[in-house]
Amino acid sequence: MGMTLTEKILARHAGLERVEPGQIINANVDLVLANELSAAVAIGVMRGIKGADRVFDRSRIALVEDHFVPAKDAQSAKLAKLMKDFAIEQEIVHFFDVGRGGIEHVVLPEEGLVAPGELIVGGDSHTCTYGAFGAFATGMGSTDIAAAFVLGEVWLKVPASIKLVYNGKLGPMVYAKDLMLRTVGELGIDGATYRAIEYHGTTVDELSITGRITMANMAIEAGAKNGIFHADAKTIAFVKERTNRDFAVDRADHDAVYERVVTIDAGSLEPQVACPHTPDNVHPISEVAADNVSVDQVFVGSCTNGYIEDLRIVAKILDGKKIASNVRVIVNPGSQKVWMQAAQEGVLTTLAAAGCVVNTPGCGACFGGHMGTLGDGERAISTTNRNYVGRMGSPKSEVFLASPATCAASALSGRITDPRVLELAGV
Amino acid sequence: MEARLSGKAHKYGKNVDTDVIIPGKYCNIIDPVELGKHALEGLDPEYTRKMKTGDVIVAETNFGCGSSREVAPIAIKGSGTSAVIAKSFARIFYRNALNIGLPIFESEAAVDGITDGDEIELEPATGKIVNRTKGQTYQAAEFPPFMRSLIDAGGLVPYVEKRLAESKK
């Protein structure tokens, strides 16, 4: 009996010939990630572990300041400083302060810290993003991260895998985000709990690295432990441009066992929207737009859709136009590198000229932290990943999740709008 | 962990996510008691006012879905809530709750049998749940053997200390 992609990576990191779903393993980790919120708690836990003075390997830990930075207030500054002091004390190689990093999940691939076949754990639920590169990556809480800091290993229950097969060519203005929203809608927010998601099919083979990042990023929105793609020529080229270390490219066996197989027809898919207040409350744009839903805020950014490719899509739609008078548009490039690239290409100028404000890279608006918090009765359409009650601010606000194109189209009209209407209009 | 816990049940629905357990704006707080003042604020702003130390949160499926923030179970514990009973838990929350010592009980029958306000008695060591109001007893799902051994060893920190000591030999 063969193994899935997830099982192969886990077996190698546990030093075993094979593993099976349900088995508990001790696995070596290639990289441990934390941000200033998860690190603050993890560092406190580590201080309480007898005999744990040093991290297991100062070059295998990444610490990224991204949630409440530039510091929202003195309390946030305290956490940022706590992590920075720890990074200095432990001589952490990969520490990213404001201005040199950005959102952790955007930064790590950019910096060549993620490669196929690796095992990465992070103190952030969207650590599953690195499955886009054929790595096993999963989010954990701070106590588990503290344990990984000192041991360089984690205990894991091997998850059963769900195989998702996407066939068909995406239509105009339909993107990886729409595919993944549809997927979360199909599976439900606990549809993949304690499971691995393995992405297959011609549609995802055609996707760019950014598209795969968007999809792997939201595996957690179906409750999954990880979401993983097979690395291909595109992946290998991306990674080799950024690192020269060796890595293994695994493939699922032909006789691998999947708990279930779900097939999604991508060819007939229209843009999708997750309506309040769960990411699986997904409807086609035609249905949502028909309700004439006005919005107060449009947000473009996050570890889901804060990449240069995403910003280019938005800039192309807004080029030479003005956003609707009833709406404010906040754009948040995912990292310093994305910000600079967008500046060089003129994307930021196009966005600003249309009436958008361009923020500094960070997670703030997405989780209701700062820099774009919603008030009572406000409604947003956002390229982010969660829309639970109060996610972006007031518990009396509403968040709709969509692709950058759908968000840009909605920015122009001030209400939730099908971007294909623009396509027909020749935008 | 205390041998026996008791308090009143506060019952909620399915998919109680970490954003409502402790809204993002409070995630820069570390102090458990401070966090506890905002427990469940996004779901039930009255919760911390109406609950008493020892009370129990009872919920349907997928409790704790969403982010990996460990401050979610820390806030619940910091509020004085003694335990959470749910039909099922989201993966990361389950692990975090055990790691920080918040007792959790998985039982469909208990959740179906308990009404808001019922007096509940819990034995974390055995998973026994007693509904004193209704005179019913339920048994929570057993922890998988590895989790049980972690709990019995006093949690992840003693486990890590043991692994560290072994590796230094």
Quaternary structure type = heterodimer
Tell me what the CATH architecture of chain B is.
Answer: Alpha-Beta Barrel
Mean pLDDT reading of chain A: 97
User: Which structural category fits the helices and strands of chain A?
Assistant: alpha/beta
Key terms:
A: 427 residues, Aconitase, domain 3, 2 domains, 33% helix, B: 169 residues, alpha/beta, Aconitase, domain 4
Structural commentary:
The complex is a heterodimer of chains A (427) and B (169). Chain A has 16 helices and 18 strands. The longest helix of chain A is centred in the first third of the chain and has 16 residues, at 74-89. Chain A has 2 domains: 5-264, Aconitase, domain 3, CATH 3.30.499.10; 273-424, 2-Layer Sandwich (Aconitase, domain 3), CATH 3.30.499.10. Chain A has 427 residues and is an alpha/beta fold. The N and C termini of chain A lie far apart (52 Å). Chain A has helices at residues 5-14, 36-47, 74-89, 104-110, 142-151, 176-187, 202-206, 209-217, 233-240, 285-289, 302-305, 308-318, 336-344, 347-354, 404-413, 419-424, and strands spanning 24-28, 31-35, 61-64, 94-96, 119-122, 136-139, 153-157, 160-167, 195-200, 226-228, 260-265, 272-274, 282-284, 297-301, 328-332, 356-358, 379-382, 398-401. Chain A is globular. The model of chain A has no long low-confidence stretch (mean pLDDT 97). Chain A is 33% helix and 19% strand. Chain B is of the alpha/beta class and 169 residues long. Chain B has one domain (5-167): Aconitase, domain 4 (Alpha-Beta Barrel). In chain B, 34% of the residues lie in helices and 18% in strands. Chain B has 8 helices and 7 strands; from the N terminus they run βαααβαβαβαβββαα. Chain B is globular. The model of chain B has no long low-confidence stretch (mean pLDDT 95). At the A-B interface, helix 2, helix 3, helix 5 and strand 7 of A face helix 5 and helix 8 of B.
